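Quarterly update, task 2.4: S-adenosyl-L-homocysteine-bound model.
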Amino acid sequence: MTHAQWNAVDDYFTAALKLSDDVLDATLKSSTDAGLPEIAVAPNQGKLLYLLAKIAGAKRVLEIGTLGGYSTIWLARALPSDGTLVSLEFDARHADVARTNIERAGLAKIASVVVGPAAQSLDRLIADKATPFDFVFIDADKENNAVYLQRALALSRPGTVIVADNVVRGGRVADPGNRDTDVAGVRQYFEATSADPRLDTTAVQTVGVKGWDGFAITVVSA
Ligand code: SAH
Ligand code: DHB
Ligand code: MG
C-alpha cells in the first residue's frame, strides 16, 4: 500500500461523491495563494464533519483552529439558516483569509472568526456564559488538546459531540519513545476523555491525502 494509492482513492471519492465545488476550491486556492500551510481537512473528511454535525442536529458549532476556513465552511453548511458557528484562530492573517472565504460562501451570517489564543477565547466564552455548543471541532495546536477539551466541556451540554483532528500523526501517538509535544497533547486528550465518566469516546485511523492520521469522536453523556 502506497501513499499514491491512498491519494488515488481520496481523489476518486472526491470526484464520485462530488465533494468539491467552486466555493471550496476557491477557499483552498486563496489559502495556498496567501501562503497558509496546506493542512486543511481532506474533502471526504470535511464531509464527515458535515455529516456528524447533521446527525447531531447541531445548531451551534464551536471550532478551534480556523486556518483558511475550509473545515469552517463544511461545518457551517450543516447548520440551519439561524445556526451559529464560532471559530477560534490565533493568527490574524489566517482569520482574514477565512473571513473572505466565509463571505464568498454566503455563510457570514452563520460563521464568525475570533482572533487570539484559543484558550483565552474559550475562557471569554465561558465567562460570558455562552449558550452551550452542540458540536465542537478541535483542530489547533495539538499540545493544548487537553486544555481545549476541558474548556469545551464547560461549553457543552449532554449530547454535545466533540471531534478532535490529527490524533494519529503518522503513528507517532503509539510510539512509546516519542516525546513530541503534539503527541503528548494527543495522549493527554485520550487520558482526559478516558478518566471522565461523562465522556464516551472512540478514535479512528484514516489514510489519504492527509497521510496516516485520524479523528477522536466523543459524546458528552451527562
Ligand atoms: N480546521 C482547519 C485547519 C486548522 S490548522 C481546516 O481543517 O480547514 C490549525 C490552525 O490552528 C492554524 O490556523 C493555526 O494558526 C491555529 N492555531 C495554532 N495555535 C493556536 C492557538 N493557540 N489558538 C488558536 N488557534 C491556533
Ligand atoms: C498539521 C495540523 C493539522 O491540523 C493537520 O490536519 C495536519 C497537519 C500540522 O501541524 O502538521
Ligand atoms: Mg487538522
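Highlight for this quarter: DSSP finds eight helices and seven strands in the chain.
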